[in-house]
Specification:
elongated
Amino acid sequence: MQEMASDIEIGGAIEFAAVSAFTRAAHYRDQATRLREMADEEPIGRLRDRLRETADQYDELAEGIVARLSSN
């Protein structure tokens, strides 16, 4: 059975969106790691805590992206 061009376009768009989302999640995880490294070097407690909180938020964003993709 021959696929219609629109089916191929839709499949390609879905694949592109999924790859983009996983790329974004990986970027968020990288940012979280970078922020934690900065926190490890930060002598000021309030700034150190804020860096770690922000890193946790990036990890949560990444987890949310992956969870949404996995549920589809």
